[in-house]
Amino acid sequence: MRESLRRLASEEVMQPPRRAGRRRCAVELIDGETLELDVQRKAKGGELLDLVCQHLGVDERDYFGLQHAERGDPRVWVDLNRRLSKTFKNSPWEVRLAVKFYPPEPADLAEDITRDQLMYAVRRDLIEGRLSCSLVTHALLGSYLLQAELGDAECEVTGSQMLRHRVAPPRALSKELEEKINDLYAMNKGQNPAEAVLNYLENAKKLPLYGAELHCARDADDVDLVIGVCAGGISIYRDGLLMNRFPWAKLTKISYNKKCYTLKLRPSEFDEFETSLSFRLPATRACKKLWRCSVEHHMFFRRAEAVTVEKVRLFPRLGSRRLSCRRTLRQLRADATDQRTQITA
Questions:
Q1: Which residues does the UniProt record annotate as the domain FERM (predicted)?
Q2: Other beta carbons within 10 Å of 63
Q3: Which long-range contacts (CB under 8 A, 24 or more apart) does 58-61 make?
Q4: 57-80 pLDDT tens trace
Q5: In a 10 Å sphere around its CB, with 0-12 CB exposed, 13-18 middle and 19+ buried, how is residue 165 labelled?
Q6: CA-based Rg of the chain, rounded to a whole angstrom?
Q7: From CA 48, how far away is CA 143, in angstroms rounded?
Q8: What are 3-21's pLDDT values in tens digits?
Q9: Distance between CA atoms of residues 270 and 35, nearest Å
Q10: Parallel, antiparallel, or unpaired for β 93-99 and 64-70?
Q11: What are the structural domains, with CATH classification, of the chain?
């Protein structure tokens, strides 16, 4: 007993002293690897995101965000403008890097490294069941993924190798799918990794739920629905089928009150007044999450610049309506154009 106590005491002495005012963060990257970082205790979410992107060499950081688990929900976005110490209590702080705003045209991205991360994000969506596709599309995407990671095919890829590279969800991987992937993989010979990644994304962007953040809700008739928010606007699904699609230009207002989420639609040429559609969410927290997701997507893809939502005096509850959007898509493209101009000059 005494010997064990002496050993523990000596180990404590040998361990390096913990730097005051710093916290350890465990970040799950999009490709499945884990990155551990030390950050200041007073650091904000945006500073941690910048550190992760800097480690990966990603400059187009505004497409990305950090997720954490909260009250049983594993996909809560970290507020980039809030101190991490107010979000996390226990150490290490565990977060997950994810693509928050999926670009509608992956070819418009300025850097190959951003497209690589986007490909891994789509792969993770397929593996975790947020995105579905046919067997033929699985085979096509899997062949481009193998081309990007392994280069030209020298021999057939086995099922265990496909599982290791996560070319498709394990439940969907069959002998037929393996054969189709190998046939298409052989046809990709000569493509460099950047070309294979772009071909992967050009096919992935055609999937109905590409880049959509899904939220469960009910309509006025108490029918279960799924509300999807993406670059093009807001879509309503029932039993996996698209019921309605509302482009951003069609929407005039997005609001919520407790569990009620409301969309106001611009009147058409045959309507005299605006139309309102209301949906019921399971809880106020879920409703607020959907509202925030909708407003942030509208801001990123439609507005010229990000808007700061100020805290409303005398109403402290409204102070939580901060938005984690630092630059919009237009600002990103303008900055990229300016950089190209400076290089050519």
A1: 23-305
A2: 22
A3: 58/111, 58/113, 58/114, 58/117, 59/110, 59/111, 59/114, 60/109, 60/110, 60/111, 60/114, 60/332
A4: 999 999 999 999 988 889 999 999
A5: middle
A6: 23
A7: 34
A8: 443 443 344 333 334 455 7
A9: 56
A10: antiparallel
A11: 16-99 (3.10.20.90), 106-204 (1.20.80.10), 213-334 (2.30.29.30)
